[in-house]
Amino acid sequence: MTSVAEAPAGAVGRRALVRLTATEGKLFVRERVGPVWGLGFPLVLLIIFGSIHSFHTARATYGGLTLLDVYLPILIEMMLALLALVAMPLVLAGYRERGILRRLRTTPAGPLRVLAAQILVNFACAVVATLVLVLVARFAYGVSVPRQFGGFVVTAVLVAVAMLCIGLFVAAVGKTGRIAQIIGAILFYPLIFFAGLWLPIPSMPTILQHISHATPLGAAWESFQNAELGRFPGALPLLTIAAWAVVFGLAAWRLFRWE
Amino acid sequence: MTTSVIEVRGLHKEYGDTVAVDDVSFSVAEGEIFGILGPNGAGKTTTVECIEGLRTPDSGEISVLGFDPQRDRAEVTQRMGVQLQESQLPAKLRVAEALDLYSSFYRAPADWRSLLEVLGLTDKAGTSFGKLSGGQKQRLSIALALVGSPKIAVLDELTTGLDPQARRDTWGLIEGIRDRGVTIVLVSHFMEEAERLCDRVALIDKGRVVVVDTPAALAERTEAEQRIQFRPSAPVDDALLKALPEVTSVIRRGDVVVVTGNDEALNAVISLLARNKIVARQLRVEQASLEDAFLELTGRHTSARDSHLADERDYERDEEQ
């Protein structure tokens, strides 16, 4: 074979990751699952909620916030959960099922880099979607940007990591893309219920509120709410989210197979 | 003896209670096409997966260009291209994108555009993987195995599932790759493929190497026996045929006579028929092949010899007559 210029080993590894990420990004857009669920769907919900008049009234139940203020973090959580629990496991388990990870094992790139590329692409989509949701809410519907912005970012990153760990767990236990998608959906609905998608947490019966606080998305909503009101999130909800991340992260680490 | 690029010594691998590979040793010389043959479940794939570093052997030693496939992953993957059985790509990834991506993994990649041309995929460069035919996917898979300009290419069940024409085209390709100096390890259960392509073959059965030799030498090991089959133009007495010293047996299948004998039986039978003014119609002669050698050495039939391939072989012999 004719050879082109030789490159040193470390540079080859970095170049492989960059190229894999660019390729996974292209496929992410072409497959449309990620952009539709990770950006389109929450944005459409925001626009619907924003068009409802009663969503703009400040309510004492929510500490003086409007329903739209309450729903913005729920939509961000929903977007993170859809990307991590449904879109990403579908791709990763599908790659395993179709021997794509196995083929990568026989190349210098290795399958870990395509996993990293998938995480980077989904993370990038999550960042873009968060910005779009926050900015559309701010400029189209006058929802104020979280006053405790650091607390908002810390919560968002932490809950993204927790969702990622659960998503990797789903990709680990789902033998095929199809099964992974089903497991992801089974986990998604209760998690998003306790985030308050159907009934915001302060309006839930006390028992459900207690359960909510123990779930990652419920704890995250509490933290987002504090950030919205200008308070730094408390340690308990942040630790709750972190605990979910650790448990599912370890389980995924133990159970994930390349083949 | 040329230098060996792959050394396998006393390889042993079990899955639970099943011994997949019992005791396998062989070495592959630089520049040859080395065949690993055997029936399904003989341990061929496990053996090459250990060479590729995809599986850890329970015991035994493997060296690929002086490297350990497990410990020296980076070095081995840089130098050895692998074409796996049933390994796909994302459906929406285009041919050119796949080659461009995979070439970025290597220190000294081949020029993937010329590789596309060699493999006849240039006009498919913009096509998604999911829209390629079986033969095109297989050729892309070979291209991906070669895009790192490897010293060794391992090809596992390369032509399984391809139609006869695509299979022939692929064989031509493999010879072309060898001519560029790439050592090839070919895993197959097609004896015809091995006969056509391999410089040497290792026959593996029940996790052990039965024999390593050239395909011709293996075929010669079996007794030189011929099977002659024809439809006589007029009735012929079996006793006359059986009386010939060169003939060992005569059987009939409908109006077709099948005569088995030594390598002079053909002459004897034809002269006998000529003396009796009988014409041998649809005459067909079968020599001992690698397939027979395999049967004799393992006492088993190679699996999955699809009927259309057998038909095709018969057709060729008819043409040769």
Can you summarize this structure?
The complex is a heterodimer of chains A (259) and B (321). With 259 residues, chain A is an all-alpha fold. Chain A has helices spanning 9-31, 33-51, 67-97, 100-105, 111-141, 149-173, 177-195, 206-214, 216-228, 235-255.
Word description of this protein:
The complex is a heterodimer of chains A (259) and B (321). Chain A has one domain (12-255). Helix content of chain A is 76%, strand content 0%. Chain A has helices at 9-31, 33-51, 67-97, 100-105, 111-141, 149-173, 177-195, 206-214, 216-228, 235-255. The longest helix of chain A has 31 residues, at 67-97. The two termini of chain A are 31 Å apart. Chain B folds into 2 domains: 4-217, Rossmann fold (3-Layer(aba) Sandwich); 221-320, YebC, transcriptional regulation domain (Alpha-Beta Plaits, 2-Layer Sandwich), CATH 3.30.70.980. Chain B has 12 helices and 13 strands. Chain B has a 6-stranded mixed beta sheet, with helices on both faces. In chain B, helix 8 (215-221) crosses helix 11. Residues 301-321 of chain B have low confidence and may be disordered.
Features:
heterodimer; A: 259 residues; mainly alpha; globular; B: 321 residues; alpha/beta; Rossmann fold; Alpha-Beta Plaits; 2 domains; six-stranded mixed sheet; four-stranded antiparallel sheet; 12 helices; 13 strands; elongated; disordered C terminus
